[in-house]
């Protein structure tokens, strides 16, 4: 199953038709992610009667799980037949299935990777491209860096090239600091803790998705903390250079940009997501100048935080 294809849907529908399996998977995941907060934050009538929204939500998730399990089962069968133990010969889902000894956990991780990976990175890329298009000076810095790394735009991109794209990565981090695509992170406490005078017992689910209404809900709101002067110098100024080593003397809390969470429950697809965004920016900005000549877009909070409106870019060949 092409996770990367699903995650870059912000660039257009391509050849997918509405009734195709990939498009229906995309639609099901988007519906689930964008309505979970509505179901949890509003009066939970669905707990007592099958409301239209709840019914559609369950139908979408059942379809999503049914199709994804088909491909996960196929990946499991391929693993049994493969003689090679080299990770490079395995797909991303196959690597999860191969390294996780508990089959149930492996299936949950694979499902989670596909579900969360469809919409989040697409929205993150939308935000990054919009900021690039509306900040021409910053885009020029990214371009000049990529020009040195890839004098010939047709050169195959390698990890060695990406390791040198320091400013490009700093730009991405600064977008996540000011416009965090994921609005918050949640955790289950391992020990009894006091937060701002409130005693929170261990084992209580602390989750920004508000999955269980019967538990105490606490959020680490990255969309807020990244813009607080207590943690970042000149927090209201967009400045990618703050993430460079030369700026290490500036006040910058390491958690000011925390789009993937932290610790044991950090986002499973972090490295894959970072790689996707870096490759996209390197190939796109090296070859095209990106411009936006329309009304400024406001950011909107749904399940995520992203520009609200059509991204109508002008792409000029460099």
Task: Give the structure's gist in a few sentences.
This protein has helices at residues 3-7, 21-41, 52-81, 92-99, 103-134, 136-149, 159-164, 166-178, 222-225, 270-287, and strands at residues 187-188, 193-195, 198-200, 205-206, 288-292, 299-301, 305-307, 313-317.
Characterization of the model:
With 318 residues, the chain is mostly helical. Helices cover 47% and strands 8% of the residues. The chain has helices at 3-7, 21-41, 52-81, 92-99, 103-134, 136-149, 159-164, 166-178, 222-225, 270-287; strands at 187-188, 193-195, 198-200, 205-206, 288-292, 299-301, 305-307, 313-317. A two-stranded antiparallel ribbon has the order 1-4. A hairpin with a 2-residue loop joins strand 2 and strand 3 (198-200). Helix 2 (21-41) crosses helix 5 (103-134) and helix 3 (52-81) crosses helix 5 (103-134). The longest helix has 32 residues, at 103-134. It is globular and about 55 Å long. Residues 1-13 and 206-214 have low confidence and may be disordered. This is Cytochrome P450 301a1, mitochondrial. Its cofactor is heme. GO terms for molecular function: metal ion binding; monooxygenase activity.
**How much of the residues is beta strand, in percent?**
5-15%
* Tally of DSSP β-strands: 8
How many DSSP H or I helices? 10
Structural class: mainly alpha
Spatial order of the strands in the main sheet?
Answer: 1-4
**Biggest beta-sheet profile:** 2 strands, antiparallel
Could you give the order of the helices and strands?
A: HHHHHHHHEEEEHHEEEE
| Structural shape | globular
Helix fraction by DSSP (H/I, runs of at least 4)? 40-55%
Output mean pLDDT.
82
Low-confidence parts lasting 5 or more residues at pLDDT below 50?
Answer: 1-13, 206-214
Measured between the Cα atoms of the first and last residue, the distance is: 34 Å
Rg for CA atoms: 21 Å
